[in-house]
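Researcher: Quick sanity check before group meeting.
Model: Go ahead. Protein one:
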Amino acid sequence: MTVRKGDYLFTSESVSEGHPDKVADRVSDSVVDLFLAADPYARIACETMVTTQRIIVAGEVRGPKSLVEKNGKVKAAKVEAVARKAIKDIGYEQKGFHWKTAKFACHLHAQSADIAQGVDAAGNKDEGAGDQGIMFGYASNETAELMPATLQYSHNILKLMADGRHSGKEKYLEPDAKSQVTLRYVNGKPVGCTAVVVSTQHSAKVDQDDVREIVRPYVKKVLPDGWFPD
């Protein structure tokens, strides 16, 4: 990767485990784990949608008899159990979204024969990946995690806030949150922080000023010494 010269600002954003996108990912991952635990050669293309008091899971699967019936129908009760557990672990117990009372719909079904044919190994034919995509990224030496500093600091702020919430220390914080960190770069290297934005769900018992003071220590803990913006 070419290092950009000069003096510039760069910003990255992260969302918490309670953000709807992450909740959906967590549920989908749990469904994938359910199938692979039962059959390492199972195939799962699972999409999840979450909204006010509703969880919808859909997609195509090929898996063991313990999860897929002969007619291709997926045993929805087992999928529902892991989906609700995932949301419970995140911490959603609100009127608008509760792991126990949200309506659940499972639209998973057996994998299309046409897609399966394109994936199955036969003779010397190369195996494909059905209709699934491939994601890629890059490593950076800006952090110990080998991620760009702006992104890793954004992740770390939300991780510390989530830890505080799960431990019971931060009783006023709720699951959904977002963070954004802007760093100043000189000749391709971060030299300071110019801005941090953190938004979070919270109890009605606290106001904007209270939330700012709750969040501030987590930001300070993540940023290098002397980088906390004015």
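Researcher: Fine. The other one?
Model: Protein two, sequence then structure:
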Amino acid sequence: MTGKIFLKLIAGVLGLLLIALGTVDYFATDVAERSYQQSLIDQVAGKCRMLALSMPAPDQLDVEHARRMAVAAGGRVTLIRADGKVLVDSEAVAAEMENHANRQEVRQAFTSGLGSFSRESATVHVKFLYVAVRVFDGSAVIRIAVPLSEIDRQVSRIRRKLLASTALAFLPAVLIAAVLARFISRRLARILAHAGELARGNFRARLAKTDSSEFGQLSRTLNETAENLQQTVSQLQHEHAELEKLERVRKDFVINVSHELRTPLASIQGYTETLIDGAINDREHNMRFLGIIRHNAERLARLTEDLLTLSRIEQKRKKFEFEIHFANGLIRDAVEMVRPIAGKRDISIVEEPGDEDAIVWCDSEAVSQVLSNLLDNAIKYTSAGGQITVGAQRAGKTIEFFVRDTGMGIPEEDLPRLFERFYRVDKARSRELGGTGLGLSIVKHLVAAHNGTIRVESTVGKGSTFFFTLPVEETALDRHALNPEFTAS
């Protein structure tokens, strides 16, 4: 590849040099020809004036005298009268020659004293340079004709010397061009090879040598392009993996929803058919069957409501009204809602309020739902006589809330999946207690909508503590940037 590029560059440089050489030849030849012709005109005009000084009167000049003057002048001599009649010519019979009044050099000579013109002679059919000078007080002109072949010989000699000198002068340029072509071809070859790597999908390839030249700038641009392509491909691969993960989550979700709906629906259908088949009149069992139907209907209602809530949050259709609220007030309201339920199970709830002036920027209804779900879970999995502690504490630019129970605890291997939809640590007990498996997933999404984080610490047999944070000011809440955990299942 390098050889081909080198040959093309050398061919291009030689072509340019040949064009330059041709241009120099054309203009230099034209200038030399004009210059030599003007010099010759001046020389011949001087000879005409010298001949005029030694020339007898026009009517006394004969052919022999004219021929001797032509030999002395080195050209054809012609004497022309003011009316254009040729008086004598060194090479032709004057009486047989046509009137020369319309000859351009003759008209110029009679007008300005000197005239010149180049053309082919009508008499001897040779191309001449005619130079005419007015003599004898303007009554005649003497004209000397010099063959242009002499000019052609002189111009050709100058042209050969000029071309030879120019060609020699171009040799260093050719050598320098060869060196530059070799350098450029190598740089181009590396750049083309790098472009080929990019075309084959190797976006990790990089051009090592970069400088301030155009090639260096091109190399940096290609490296930046490769970097951008690599990042784009990595992002696409990541998005593809995320899509595959979401697809798996979607399938699991459909399976879980189908399963969760199927169980209460099957129970409702079974007991309804039993009642229709006659059990409605069985006073011993009919009320129990209706109670089971009611329990499963309530379970379906809770499941449907939780699914709708989760869907609204994930699709950003749930509207939040963010305002300033006291952290202790939020805790107090949530505890008052569940205290009667805890009291029935002989579970005490203790508040550990934070600073009196601790405030958060949040949607109070969403935070109430978060605390209610966490407290509800704590009550379900705490035995009678146990204790639940709810409190808040400062954590940098956030307030961290916590709900601590003395329940059964959560195994360490279950902690990473605890906030997944329909994930249950104890499936049988969760269904028995009426859980939908969506409470903690809703909590996670609501906290993430506040740009907060949620975590859990637990020890089996001793209890669990759930922590979540809320911002203390509006500027800490980015409603458009989702928390990284927000898109998790």
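Researcher: One line on it for the slide.
Model: Confidence is low (pLDDT under 50) at residues 479-489.
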